[in-house]
Specification:
alpha/beta, about 55% helix, 5-stranded parallel sheet, single chain, Rossmann fold
């Protein structure tokens, strides 16, 4: 059986990446492809527990401040487990794997936002993830202020409606997010063969329009995934 395809979605919280991942998954499934979706951190039993530590703003009141290096190490622990438990088996089975965040997120958030630097992140990726690379990365990069406003509003709604608090990163400063945004831009410039950045074109930036643009990118970069 032919090996599957690995596509990741990246961007700041509030960029729309999770919505677009779901829409692409639905389209690929409806055109007869076997699709596996996951998010990082999370999607495994270990990952869900790590997600609570990493994203819940209340975790620091019980655990104390999480050091940037510990934060990065936990992100890679989650990633190693998801590769072993979900990603590699699905690729071996010929599936299209759609992942909401991967190592680019760690390079942007911990390497850029926490100022740990890209080289440490990439070294860990080679050692812990066996340098597994996506075939394609969709980077949603709307204006920074738009993403932050949407993310903070969404997370507050989740707290009020579901009691789910994943606001730990949203409590950071705008300067922190500025460093993340710049790190994503640098990744896209460094790896244009893999990363396709979709930002504000000044035209139609509706959810439907972006969905169509993503489909076109997928078909252009991975012709085997075109609808039959």
């Amino acid at each position: 059986m032919a090996r599957g395809y690995f596509i990741t979605f990246e961007g700041l919280d509030g960029s729309g990446k999770t919505t677009q991942l779901r829409r692409l998954a639905d389209w690929l499934t409806n055109t007869g492809h076997h699709v596996v979706t996951l998010r990082q951190p999370g999607s495994t039993a270990l990952g869900d527990r790590l997600r609570a530590v990493l994203l819940d703003s209340r975790s620091e009141s019980s655990l104390g401040p999480l050091s940037p290096m510990a934060e990065m190490a936990l992100m890679f622990a989650d990633r190693a487990q998801s590769i072993a438990e979900i990603i590699e088996p699905a690729l071996a089975d010929g599936a299209i794997v759609l992942c909401d965040r991967f190592t680019d997120s760690t390079e942007a958030y911990q390497g850029g936002g926490r100022r740990l630097g890209s080289e440490r992140v990439l070294d860990l990726h080679r050692a812990i993830c066996n340098n597994l690379q996506p075939h394609l990365t969709i980077l949603l990069l709307p204006p920074l202020k738009n993403s932050l406003l949407r993310a903070r509003r969404r997370n507050q709604r989740n707290v009020q409606k579901e009691g789910q608090d994943e606001n730990r990163f949203e409590c950071e400063s705008d300067e922190f997010y500025g460093r993340i945004h710049r790190a994503y831009e640098e990744i896209a410039a460094r790896e244009p063969h893999r990363v396709v950045a979709i930002g504000d074109t000044g035209g139609d930036n509706s959810i439907d329009s972006i969905e169509l643009r993503i489909r076109n990118v997928v078909c252009d970069r991975i012709p085997a995934l075109r609808a039959s």
